[in-house]
Design brief:
single chain; alpha/beta; eight-stranded mixed sheet; seven-stranded mixed sheet
Length: about 375
């Protein structure tokens, strides 16, 4: 068994496996190939990988030799034809197939077997492989730190000889993994936190972290959405809009996290709401990659409107590459246990809901029903 790890595109600082994860594979007599420089941005040198038992190779050599290729993002198209054939290589990463379904169609045509870990069923058994949660936790933490860095005032309350400084007021839209970590981080920094979520079930978690839960009656049931938002009725959206508008007008920091799988992010914050905010306020939009939760969000950009900074950043885990890679690597290792048998050979058990649910392409076909429906 040979597992290869590719270097990610220039914008990505993470790597699929750190040396400590590589060591756990080589101890099982699995050969691991690492592309030259793959872990540099995550503080892992080629020498570190060599000491862990890996071999340093070029991307072309890795693609040609590996049974399984690990790459968080889609690999360069120039290498993909080499993966085709009856014994096609397996690609494992986070490929957002519900948005990149045409690329998935091309992979199927080339005989590529691909697993996208963002499509894992959100079940208890899948928690140790849940890359969305492990990375969202980092995003929520960094969102608050980023906001504190550019916010022109203190977060905690201060009482000084020169006068008192009131604490910052933070509004968090969405109490999923990222939202809950944002609550905890903002509270540790001394801010007053309000939280809005359509799921009443998260109220207890929110309050246990010391935040106030803003309720809106009449929300559609989101208990089976795996922590994501769901589409709501027009009547509820109107109530929601008014509640959010009231809270945003008082907020110094707004962190938005709401996303719907395979669809554009719901717009929760209008330009009018932003114009009602105090100058110097900050919005961190973690849903920027899928359109954003504000009308003015631009992915990977900071937009200023009426003195308010709107930061579109859905790649915050990449700002903490060492721990982000460590957690991602653990998720990958746990997934590999599902598709590698005790003899170190690939064994794709289609009776396993996690294997079946995360497989996008195999044997020249689109395997995932949701992706197939889009095509």
């Amino acid at each position: 068994m040979i597992i290869g790890v590719l270097q990610e595109p220039v914008f990505e600082t993470r790597v699929s496996l750190l040396p400590e994860a590589v060591a756990s594979l080589t101890k099982k007599a699995i050969t691991v190939l690492i592309e030259t420089g793959a872990g540099i941005k995550a503080s892992a040198s080629d020498d570190d990988y060599s000491k862990a038992g890996a071999q340093i190779k070029s991307a072309k050599e890795i693609i040609a030799a590996s049974d399984i290729v690990l790459c968080i993002h889609q690999p360069s198209p120039q290498f993909l034809p080499e993966t085709s054939g009856p014994d096609s290589r397996i690609l494992i990463g986070v490929y957002q197939p519900l948005f990149n379904f045409q690329q998935m169609k091309n992979w199927a045509a080339n005989g590529i077997t691909s697993f996208s870990l963002d499509m894992l069923p959100r079940t208890t058994r899948a928690q140790t492989m849940d890359v969305l949660s492990s990375q969202a936790n980092i995003a929520g933490y960094k969102a608050v730190l980023y906001a504190a860095n550019i916010f022109p005032k203190y977060f905690p309350m201060f009482m000084t000889a020169a006068g008192s400084i009131p604490p910052a007021k933070v509004l968090i839209l969405g109490a999923g993994v990222a939202g809950l970590q944002a609550i905890a981080t903002a509270r540790r920094l001394g801010a007053i936190v309000e939280v809005f979520d359509t799921r009443a079930a998260v109220k207890e978690e929110v309050m246990s972290l010391g935040a106030k839960f803003v309720e809106v009656e009449g929300a559609a049931d989101a208990s089976k959405a795996g922590g994501y938002a769901v589409e709501q009725t027009a009547e509820f959206l109107q109530k929601q809009k008014q509640k959010i508008a009231d809270s945003i007008a008082k907020a110094d920091i707004v962190i938005t996290t709401a996303q719907i799988p395979g669809k554009p992010s719901p717009v929760l914050v209008t330009a009018t709401m932003i114009e009602a905010m105090k100058k110097g306020s900050v919005i961190i939009d973690l849903a920027a990659a899928t359109g954003g939760n504000t009308e003015l969000t631009k992915d990977n950009e900071t937009v200023y409107h009426h003195g308010v900074a709107i930061v579109g950043n859905s790649a915050l885990p990449s700002t903490m590459p060492s721990d982000a890679s460590k957690l991602y690597g653990k998720n990958v290792l746990n997934f590999l246990h599902l598709i590698i048998d005790k003899d170190g050979k690939v064994n794709l058990n289609w009776e396993d809901d996690l294997v079946k649910g995360s497989c996008i392409t195999h044997g020249g076909e689109i395997m995932n029903e949701r992706v197939k429906a889009l095509i």
